[in-house]
Amino acid sequence: MKKACILVLLWVSAGLAQTTLSMEDALNIAMQNSPQIKQAELSLERSRQSLKAQRAALKSNFSLSINPYNYSYDRRYDRFRNIWYSSENTSSSADFRIRQPILWTDGTFSIINRLQWLQGWSEGGTDQNEPWSNNLYLNYEQPVFTYNRTKLALNELELDLENTMINYVVQKLSLEYDVTNSFYEIYRNKLAYDIAREEYVNTNSSYQIIKNKVDAGIAAKEEFYQAELNLLNSESAVQNNLVQLENSLDSFKKLIGVPISDSINIVGDVTHIVIDVDLEKAINNGLKNRLELRQREIEVQSAYHNLIETMALNEFQGSISLTYGIQGVNRTFESIYDNPDRNRQASISFEIPLFDWGERKARIKASEATIESRKLSQEEEQDNIIISIRQAHRQLQNLVNQIEIARQNVKNAELTYEINLERYKNGDLTGMDLNLYQIQLSDAKIQLTDSIINYKLALLNLKILSMYDFIRNEPVVPENLLQEKTD
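Above: the chain sequence. Below: its structure as tokens.
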């Protein structure tokens, strides 16, 4: 009895410093602190910043390159005159560039200004008498006969961000199920601990009864030995259930992101309410809103992008370059454009593959096979969604029946235990037999709780599978789950 009191006092004293959490509290904490969610948020931030960087790269880029001082003294050979000569040069220069990528054509438009000061001499020549020069020109580079690499790279990053967002939402739904499952596991272990303590009290009462009978000489000592053994087993069951409860609390704290050293307790409601589930509505809503279907579409689009890149391997392609500018040179900086020169340049180049031993053709076929494979996965995903929703619906219906059976078992076990307890008090039943009825009652209570918890988890699973909340009778809109979604 003293050991039982000590266990109860320890539990009560620990509860004084505990933080009590409801299911809603646990979910809110998990959505903020869970390591899984933090990892998903970091992946989302990576994709968002990558897309932001790519969009920023499409804007005008300004750069300034400065070479303030450059000096050289060289000894060179003049092949025309067959003599060696010396030259000395001192220069300073600065280049200012404005570069603007063109998204729709994959071309690049540039404005470049090159300012230079040059002073030098050479043997047999004259000194530089016009040290200042400035060259301002426009340049446009346009690839032809190939795909738009800039636009494709942007589309890939947009798809990557959308896919990461979907993973984040799916992770939140998965976390909701894991937290709920872990929460109810604690509830079940706590109930098992309470039942074990109740069983210990009942066993101890039986022990005192048989002890008094043995002391009075109206019962055999074998009954006392059995009662003592039952009491020890009951005490061990209390300790074992306490260990399971504490272990489940530690796992729960890790899952929701609470320090392991914190002391928490949970409070929950496992009352059973039958929810009407429309199977057709669940299937239609799942096919409409399941995020995995969109992920399969993204995979198909990514495969097409890979095919485009593969087709560019060893392809016939070209480039057009146009340049126009004015250049001025003069002795003084102020007069640099007194007599400017107009510079013009145009060029067209082609890259023509001749023979690649069938490499390009084989890689294209491999990419096409990947596309067909992902299309099949997309179609298979629809069938999997329908099957999983139908299975979840059947499980719900079966659990409703199991709950009613378990509830009736509890009533029968309670009545059976009360009847046999009176028989035990009257000496018509052994302690071993009474212990069996006690175990039967405890198991019936736990089975009822397990059935109700399994029903609630199955209902949550159906919500995730169908993206429809049948408790609130409203669809689960993915956009509402992802408040951080930005363009």
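Residues 62-102+107-146+316-352 form one domain.
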